[in-house]
Design goal:
309 residues, Elongation Factor Tu (Ef-tu), domain 3, Thrombin, subunit H, 7-stranded antiparallel sheet, Alpha-Beta Plaits, mainly beta, 5-stranded mixed sheet, 3 domains
Length: 309
């Protein structure tokens, strides 16, 4: 199985949980303490956030809590007006230093292409062992996650790097049977209880085999263990083997999830902190070691794919 798929999944998890960059959906006036946003799913109580618009106006705040699925309550009211027309976004930060999506990288490198914080995810090794007779092979993927921040550009670089490492560690520890390798596809039309046909953005890669398991989820509900029935006659429609029990709303970010691989055991095992010298400068750094295990079935005896002369 591909380690690239796992590295990409870890990168997606980091982007979703640490970048968390979303637009406001209603103008925010001076003195306002509650912000309307498109979705607050990846924000938590105590998060540090920055409001910033296209004019360069920005404010740093702390969240009291998310409200419902589309509001954020701030500890203190805003001191400036923030308008939708000025492309105002709410950005999760740590130490007032944001992580941007383009700075989550596949593989380490000699030159880090940013003076802001960067996260590098790199495959390290693959080992395996037999779990049971008749072909149960456990494959263990080992991944390194490095966090870098230029020492000469940020006075508190090591403190910020340590906080980012702790946050990534927490994200990965919250998903011991991790869903990082799932394929997530947006639902494009509201779903009503009892429906079996679901309109989605694309069915590329979807399987109809018995082992393929699907879920449907939005900000309010989730249902699991669906199979696909019939043939994929439409590139934008799936048919479940039974009706859903609840309503799913596209305004609440409804998605269909395909569990393409099952990581039965995973966790970060340690964090190292220190200083690293690279061609682009001296960096405060942290390194998280992570492993993930899945099983691969082999059937015996194994036969050649060709007939030898």
């Amino acid at each position: 199985m591909s380690v690239e798929h796992i590295v990409d999944g870890i990168m997606r998890a980091i982007k979703k949980n640490l970048v968390a960059r979303i637009p406001i959906t209603s103008d925010v006036s001076i003195g306002t303490g509650v912000i309307e946003v498109s979705n607050n799913f990846y924000f938590e109580s105590g998060n540090e956030v920055t409001l910033v618009d296209s004019n360069g106006t920005q404010e740093h705040h702390v969240l009291v809590r998310p409200l419902g699925t589309k509001q954020l309550q701030l500890l203190h009211p805003v001191e400036h007006d923030f308008l939708v027309t000025n492309n105002t976004i709410v950005q999760k930060t740590i130490g007032h230093v944001p992580l941007f999506e383009n700075d989550v990288l596949y593989g380490d490198r000699a030159v880090i292409p940013t003076e802001q914080v960067s996260v590098v995810v790199e495959p390290v090794s693959l080992d395996n062992e037999w779990m049971y007779l008749q072909g149960g092979l456990s494959e263990n993927y080992n991944i390194a996650i490095m966090i870098y921040l230029r020492e000469d550009k940020h006075e508190s670089a090591l403190r910020i790097v340590s906080k980012y490492a702790d946050r990534i560690y927490s994200v990965l520890m919250s998903k011991l049977h991790t869903d990082i390798v799932n394929q997530v596809v947006p639902v494009t039309a509201n779903v009503t209880a009892g429906d079996t046909e679901i309109e989605v953005a694309s069915t590329d890669g979807f399987l109809q085999r018995d082992i393929a398991e699907y879920e449907i989820q939005d900000n309010n509900n989730v249902e699991i263990d669906f199979k696909l029935t019939g043939t994929l006659t439409s590139p934008t429609r799936v048919v479940f083997n039974r009706g859903v029990l609840r309503d799913y709303d596209i305004t609440e970010n409804a998605v269909v999830i395909w569990r393409s691989r099952y990581i039965y055991d995973s966790r970060p095992t340690n964090i190292e902190y220190g200083t690293v010298s690279k061609e682009s400068g001296l960096y405060k750094a942290a390194k998280i070691t992570w492993f993930g295990k899945e099983t691969e079935d082999y059937r015996f005896p194994q036969h050649s794919n060709t007939v030898e002369p």
